[in-house]
Amino acid sequence: MSTSPPPPSPSAAARRSRAGGELWRAVSGRVARVVGRAHQTWRRSLQVRVVTITLVASSLLVGGFAFLIADKITTILLDSARSDVRQRVTSGANYAAKQVSFYGQPQEAQLQETIDGTVNYLAGGDPQQTSGVVVAITADDYPNDIQTRTSPSANVQSLISPELRAAIADGKVASQIRTGRLTRETTKYLVYGSPVPTRFGQIELYYLVPLGRQDVTAADARATVVATGVALVILLGLLAALVTRLVVNPVRVAARTAQRLSAGLLDQRMVVNGEDDLALLAASFNQMATNLQRQILRLEEMSRLQRRFTSDVSHELRTPLTTVRMAADLIFAERDEFDPAVARSAELLQAELDRFEELLTDLLEISRFDAGFAMLDSEPTDLVPVVHRVVDRLAGLAERVGVPIELDLPGTPVIAEVDPRRVERVLRNLVGNAVEHGEARPVLITLGIDETAVAITVRDHGVGLKVGEEKLVFNRFWRADPSRARQTGGTGLGLSISLEDARLHGGWLEAWGAPGQGAQFRLTLPARAGDRLTTSPLRLVPADAALPFGGPRDGGPLAIGPGTGGALAIGPAPAGDGQRTEVRS
Which PROSITE patterns does the protein's record reference (predicted)? Predict the structure, then answer.
């Protein structure tokens, strides 16, 4: 007695399942890589796209024409065969009708012999004796009296359909194409039938003509058309590739030359061959590159002279400024002994000298940034005392203009590798501007930190910024409202220097503002020198910024405004867990 093999263990089934899953993942991964490379090639290569589109379009066009031509050839061959067989059937029916016209009853003894002789005669009338044509006479109305005769002998009942028999019985000449086996091979036949009238009724005459020769001719024609079409498609593809290469190569050369020019290699030029449109393109490109090189060199020389002039003037002004400063200090110290008008003039002179000295300092700093000589002196620094120093230094100005300063700082030290002098200068400019534009409303300073970055935001509730001014504020000597009276007499270079200080740290300095809602500046620096920033611990848009479509939703404050790089920022306002707030006025 046979026994069935034991079922596989669960472990073996699990191994097979894992192997199948790994195989499927490997195949799908390979297919995905191939599709990805093909998609990348399609997007990057104009030549591939043009050749592919040409091949697809020409294949569809040539395929359509080939189908029409092959169908037309087949139709012509079949119509020719139908016309020939119809003539033979007509003449054969007339001949058969004459032969059987002497018989008045189907039971007559000589009728069957006459039918046999008629069939043999009609079959012998074929000029090609090996054509395979079969002639048959049947009598469906008298099956017991008249037997079916064929020449050559064959069983044709399977090739004569009931529909054809019914059409012949109605007195019509009809035809159809049937496939069957009368010899050793299965062949397609054109079956034509015609009624033969007699004195006792009618009999049926059928011609079965094989269409093998027509099929071979049609197949040869189709093969010729297909081969011609394939050759034409390949030729069109090669022609498209050649033409596209002639056009794309100069464009590629121009692109590579443009890349070298953008990299600073201003002496790169294209080779001009011939006098056609591509040669005109190369010559125009070279002329453009020459003009750009000349203009860039001119601008570089002008920039260098400008930077040198600014630096030289700033240095040269130091000496007379020192002399004027000493004289002004002496006059300012003795101002109580002067007339009130002279004393006021001494105070104005002292204030403007302070501003002039600050302007010279800023110009020297800007010249160092422009010349690329600014150096970063990073060290681990606690930013909380830096913020306190800035607030203490500007406390007098804030008290004078009636703007309270609020601090939102962590209760623990915030350590980052920064240049404390530059960070303090940035904060001094930001807080000073916020106090200047605070409109007697509080200024909030917030400090935040995460694993990779530290951020400080300075928020005021003044007139705010119009759309687009959040980028203009960092331009040199730009002012939102030139007619507005200033309290601090700034130089107009503070935010420009602050932006350069932030970039020197590898950080961001961004601005947000809305009319009537004030403004907020955010300084984001990497916690470790040299790291690359990706996010900021604090939001650029303040939590109390009003939404343009109706205010906060979902039970919590939301903020909307330009995010990093000018993108739109919208989302929940940042929380202040683990922080404390101080108010100074």
Answer: HAMP, HIS_KIN
